[in-house]
Amino acid sequence: MSVISKNDDNLITVSKFGGTSVADHQAMLRCAQIIKNDESNRVVVVSASSGVTNLLVRLSQANVSEAEQQQLIENIKNIQFNILAEIDNSKVLENKVLALLSELTAYAQAQSLNHSPRIADAILSFGEQMSSLLFAQVLQSIGVNGHTFDVKQIMKTNDLYGQAVVDLEKLASCTQAYLAEKLTDQVIVTQGFIGQTADGHTTTLGRGGSDYSAALIAEALNAKNFAIWTDVVGIFTTDPRITDQARAIKEISFGEAAEMATFGAKILHPATLIPAMRKNIPVFVGSSKEPEKGGTFIQQTVESKPTYRSISLRKEQTLVTVKSPAMLHASGFLAKVFAVLAKHELSVDLITTSEISVAMTFDNPTGSTQALLNSTVVEELEQLCEVSVENGLSLIAVVGNSIHRTNGVGTNIFDALSGINVRMICQGASEHNLCFLVNEAQANETVEKLHNKLFAQND
Ligand code: ADP
Ligand code: ASP
Ligand code: MG
Prior knowledge:
Helices cover about 40% and strands about 20% of the residues. By secondary structure, it is of the alpha/beta class. The strands form 3 sheets. An 8-stranded mixed β-sheet has the order 3-5-2-1-8-10-11-9, with helices on both faces. Strand 10 and strand 11 form a beta hairpin. Helix 5 runs antiparallel to helix 6 (about 115-125). The longest helix has 23 residues, at about 90-115. Adenosine-5'-diphosphate (ADP) binds near residues 21, 47, 231, 239 and 265.
């Protein structure tokens, strides 16, 4: 029988802390205090300490010399040992971290002999493994009964390394079997981002995936609340790093926030809101540095539904245009193109078509562990049609409400875009967004111009 649904059903908050929130001991202490201040905080999901996953990504690549390997591991060790140094009586913990580092070294050596995506994921998992050990100890240091829990016991996935897909049924049953009963007297600290195949191999869910892991756990536990603690005081009208005119949003609907995340607002991993929406769990986003400043509530219904809510930006986009006279008045051509993409597990973001050509955008981020558009895919498409590939583009999405039914949206947006070369536009498929593609060099300027136009008017 489910321990959680018996009587504690509504009492649990799942809290996720991102990389900067667990970057050093002081940051971890602030997060531990947040947990201590609210008794409903029973499950903590942590990312790797800031910078560690990037170092691991490099370590997992094919062309790393032995000297570089050692340097990377040394850098990772320094980040974790700086935290350890501030924790009292940490000898046992230090040995656990050292054991993880020697396991990591063995994987890195194996990887340099015979590179594989499976070992790459094993390597990437060490950041979260170490930060979760350290965070549980920091909780204990302030009198909270924190214990590390190996998420691989519950986060079972397929073997699509780098972007593994979680088995939701197993997650639900394993959560009840192995995790739920612990919550009566412990605060559980577990790892975001990582999972495990049925035959025991470590997987990862894609960069930034800790948000998604935490949302899935909140869903599996039927949590009352889900809190994402990060380095900004909530969701803003656009990335506050792009313009200081960006303003924090008090509340936003699931639908709008999901569109923001899909179109690149780094604050939320794109899949984060799917589990929260399935169980209608309200999501809070706030700053672990300034929790007193409040944050953004993402929920099913909100009072205001402004036409313009926010602007998202996703860099490193590739535009592929396929062209074939065979498309003229023909059917089945698009199916063949998409069969190639499906075979390589590539997903298309924007798409526009004309009589004999189709233009599609793909996400191609550096440091990604996901399937990317590569020369094999292009060669296979070339068997079907003429293919042109343009890199160095950025996707910008204006997110809001009833965008497709509001007069004057186009005028406002195109006014703001004067002087900008717009490469592609998509509107109409969703009531929540209008998207377009610009050159990366003009991306930030475009967001600033749009923000000035759309949000100054809204005051
Ligand atoms: P974490 O490590 O906590 O997961 P991330 O770096 O992944 O944090 O996400 C937080 C960052 O997201 C912020 O520092 C901010 O620069 C960026 N960001 C992008 N779009 C937005 C937005 N609309 N509102 C707030 N932050 C945003
Ligand atoms: N540590 C992983 C990353 O940097 C996952 C996360 O932080 O969400 O991508
Ligand atoms: Mg993140």
